[in-house]
Structure formats: structure tokens, C-alpha cells
Amino acid sequence: MEHNMELKHKIESILFFKGQPVSFIELSKLLEVSIEDVKKSLQELSDDHQKKGTRITYNDHECEYVTASETSDILSKLIKQEDESELSNAALETLSIVLYMGPITRSMIDFVRGVNSQFTVRNLLVRGLIEKDPTSKNSSYIASLDTIKFLGLNRVTDIPNYVEVKHSISQFIKDNSNESEK
Amino acid sequence: MEHNMELKHKIESILFFKGQPVSFIELSKLLEVSIEDVKKSLQELSDDHQKKGTRITYNDHECEYVTASETSDILSKLIKQEDESELSNAALETLSIVLYMGPITRSMIDFVRGVNSQFTVRNLLVRGLIEKDPTSKNSSYIASLDTIKFLGLNRVTDIPNYVEVKHSISQFIKDNSNESEK
Amino acid sequence: MTSVFAVQTKVFEGPLTLLLEMIEKRKLHINEISLAQVTNDFLDFVGMLEHKDLEKLTEFISIASTLILIKSKSLLPHLDLADEEKTEVEDLELRLKLLQIFRGAAKDIKEIFGNTILYSRLQTSKKPCVKFLPTDQITTIKMKWYADQLLQNLPKTDKKPQKRVSRTITLEEMMNKVINRVRQHMSISFKTLSGEHKEKKNVIIGFLAILELVKMGNVDANQSERFEDIMIESRNPSIPSYGT
Question: Are A53 and B127 inside 8 Å of each other by CB?
């Protein structure tokens, strides 16, 4: 299947996926083609995107997939709305779990909530309400200092019923970890 | 400037920017157009992307900008994906019931399978393969966009034998409509 | 009997799956005839089920009782099923056919699942965490409320199965009852035995239990003429026979 795809579309896919600048060298290694071929394909790709909502930009050594400048108005509107929007129940529930259970991994949050929390966690991260715990090896989340201050607490353990809630949820995790294997 | 952009390209830009599923309602509000217009543009956009390195995938209520299935080999090299455990037969069976019959309630799933599906359903929810249908009042489940992405399809109707299976099921559902009220 | 052991080694999701596999193993279509054919195998399996998991057992017994209806009808052509019983039989066929379709669909899905994934963007345009954007929804009271809600809604796994086990008598219980009655009276008429039950289903279970016992050589059943009462006698050598 892969072989039917033109080189430029493979590059398009990689740039889209990475979402950050990628060097010509990296592309050439990954796709096992010459840097010249990469450059040629990028030129074509960039032309293809002339009137689209997204663009391919590049300089002399790297390239990136970005939104078209013509759409910046609508995107600023989107950002403003997102920043000012109320938090969903899912977001508040997840924040509560991170407060009581943090540091806690994404998969444990999912397990306790019984639904996938990928986007909810991402949203909380973007808003600075939670953050990656710098001390845990497997990426775990904790409430940000700003959140704890905002709640008027000195430390997270001062939240009402901290010990009881933490205990009950931990117990649930312990009792059910076999079920999750099914 | 923005006004020169076609609606579909604005949608393209927003979907790119978000990098996660976006509901038709959100797009319609943000762009101040009808949901019908959103759907029409998405259809066009999806067709435009037929031979590209990226695709537009969607179900009945949301859409996402993703990479093309033909490039999955290259991209899988780029991520050290946690080897997600394979789906059990029970999970596959339940997922296919939700795919073809969704929105469907838990009790109807139980009825079709002849067993209590509480944990299987919860597992599928945790993995993000099914989700609560945002439009139904009694909590019903539908297949998520993630399922469609894992199947490498643009939309659910691209499943092999989809039409035949859907047809045979609809014959039974008609006779069985009383049961679903239970 | 080997077929039963073959299926027993597998973990069965439920009675429908078991029944469907029994039918598929014999390469039969789903209909009353095939269901009557696999009834004995199914009952054998249910007989071996542990009583620990009451919920599971109930699921099996409710299907078993429908099968017994079907089997009885195939043995007693004169038996008229009530409307409700007819629906029960039709429902079972329907559910089996639906499940068969979905098991096929699940295989199709398994073939392609995860082979060529459509990936989301690894990184969105929005970089996390340069700003702090709280709302006034974030209060300690609210956070505790959400935690309490969560705890309340966690699925309970350790709950003891309620006393909602089907009131239908299990086959095994019925067999024991027949054996005991035969032991006591040495010879008992089917009418006497079934007269204790009002529900037709229980009469049928009784009847099938007798057939089972006859098959196993524990009792003799005699019917002098069609539609006459059936006489049941113990054949167990351990029971002293004062017989005629």
C-alpha cells in the first residue's frame, strides 16, 4: 500500500503528524531518499497547498506544516473562546481526581473515570490547571501550584476529605485491577 | 482577507489547529454557518483529501484531521507506541454491536450478547473506542472516531461488508423493536 | 460427552455464545430443529456449572428453560405453547441469529483493526502552559463534590448477587426430586409428580428429567397407551425392591 503513495504525500503526512519543524536530513533518512528529492517534493507540496487552509513552509534546511495566514482571524476567535470557556463536567471531575490522587497517570485517570480522558487531560494542561509531575518517571499529572493557590490551599493535602477520598479511590483501583485486564 | 477563504478551508485550518475531534456544533457556532453547511463542506474536504498524505475522518457528529492510512507504516516507526493489548473477543463482539447498532443502550447490548456487558463496555469506554452518544437522552453508546481511525477508515461505512451486515441486522431489528423497549 | 468436555475447557461468555457454538459445531442452521438437537448438550453443560456465580447461572437457566420448551415440543407434537412461550422461542432464535451476525462482523473488524491507523497530530498548535486560565468553578467545595460523585458512581464489583435467581427449578433439582419420589413410592405416576406444579414449564422440566433418568438407567418409565399416565419405577439396585 505504502508504495503507491507519492513521496510528497508521505512527507505531508510526516509533517502533519509531527506538528513541528522537521529537517530535510531527517526526512531523507526516514524515507530513504536524497535530500534533493525531499526539496523537490516540498516545492510541489507547497504549491499544492496554495489555496488551502493549511500551508507547507520551509527554509533551506527544515520545513513545517502550518495553518494558512488567512485563517488567523478565525483561529484567534477560537483561542479566545476556548480560553474563556467554562470547564466541562468531565474537566472538573478530572481536575478533582488529579487533586486527590496526583501524581496519577493518564491510564489511571481513565480507569477511575471509566472513560478515555485524553482530550480532557490535554485541555487541563493547556489551561495550566494541571502539569506533568517532574519527579515521576512514568508521566504522571499533578495539580499546578497556581491551581492550589487558586483554591486557597497551602498544599494539596489540605483539600477537604483528602485522606478518605484518596483511600476510597485507591481501594477501588486495587479491587478492580484484575477486571481491567479482561 | 479571511473572506476570500472558502468555508471548507477554514474548517481545514481549525481541524488542523485543534488536532483532535471537533463537533459539528462547535464548527457551526464558530463559523456562524448551519450544521448542514458544515457537513457539506466536510464532504468536499474529505473528497479533496482522497489521494493526500492526510485525511478528514468523521462520524455523525464530529470530525478530525488525521494522517492517511497508507502512511501508517512510516508513522508507526516515529512513535514508541505503548503496545496496546489486543482486544478480546468479547470486546470485539461488543464493539461491532455498537458500530452497527449504535446509538445503543447497555441493556440492549446485554440482550444481544446474552450476558452482562458492564465491564466490557467500561473497557471500551476507557480505551476511547466507544463513547456516550451526546445526542441521546437515555445513555446510549456509539463508536468513537478513534475506532474508525484504528480501522484505518475515513468513515464507518467503509468497513468491509458494512452494507450486507447492516442489511441483515435491520431485518431483525424490525421484528425485535419491542425488545429494545424493555 | 466428549463435546461437552471440549466446550467446558473454554471460558464461555454466556449461554447464547455457548448455544451458538454448539449449533455451529454441528454445522446446523439456527431453527427449532437444531435447537432441540443441542438441548441435551446444553443441559449437560448447565448441570456442570458451579453454583457460586448465581448471576451467571441464572442467565444459563433462563436459556435452558426455553430450550426445554423447544425440546418438549419436538417430543410431544401435541403440546401447544402459550403465546408468551412462542415469543420466547422466537426471541431465542432471533438473538442467536443476531449474535451470529455480530460474531462474523467482529471477525471482519479483527482483521483490519490496528493495521493501518490514521494518526492524530502528535502535537497540537497550541502549546500547553504559558498561562493559567482558571474559572470560578474551581473551588474546594466543588472539587470535593466531584470526588464524592465519582466515588458514588464507581461500579460495584463485590456486590453479592441478589436473591433474584430465576424461580424456575433447575434441572438438577428436578432430577433429585424425581429420584427421591421414586425412592419413596417406588412407583409413581407422572401425573402425581407434575400435579405439584402449576407452571407448564415445570411439568416439562419434570418430564425431561424423567427422560434423562431413563437414559441414565436410574428409573423405568412405562406408558401403557398413548396419552395414558406414565408410571415411573426405580431401577436403582441399591434400593430394596418390594416390587410386584
Answer: no
Cα–Cα distance between C90 and A90 in angstroms, integer?
43
Task: List, as ranges, residues 9-38 from A with C-beta within 8 Å of C.
Answer: 16-20
Task: Check if the beta carbon of residue B101 is closer than 8 Å to that of residue B169.
Answer: yes
Alpha carbon C153 to chain centroid distance?
Answer: 29
Cell of A102: 496526583
- Whose cell is 419491542? That residue is B178
Q: Report the 10 Å Cβ neighbour count for B132.
A: 14
Grid coordinates in use for A163?
485522606
Name the amino acid, one letter, at C79. L
* C-alpha B177: how far from chain center: 24
Phi and psi at residue C222, to the nearest 5° = -125, 135
Handedness of CA A106, A113, A115, C136 (dihedral sign): negative
Q: Could A70 and B4 be called an inter-chain contact, meaning their C-beta atoms sit closer than 8 Å? A: yes
pLDDT by residue (tens digit) across A94-146? 999 999 999 999 999 999 999 999 999 999 999 999 999 999 888 899 999 99
Look up the ipTM and state it. Answer: 0.88
Nearest to B89 among C106, C111, C114 (CB): C106
**Whole-prediction pTM value?**
0.81
**Contact between B59 and B155 (Cβ < 8 Å):** yes
Q: Length of chain B, please? A: 182
A95 touches chain C (CB under 8 A): yes
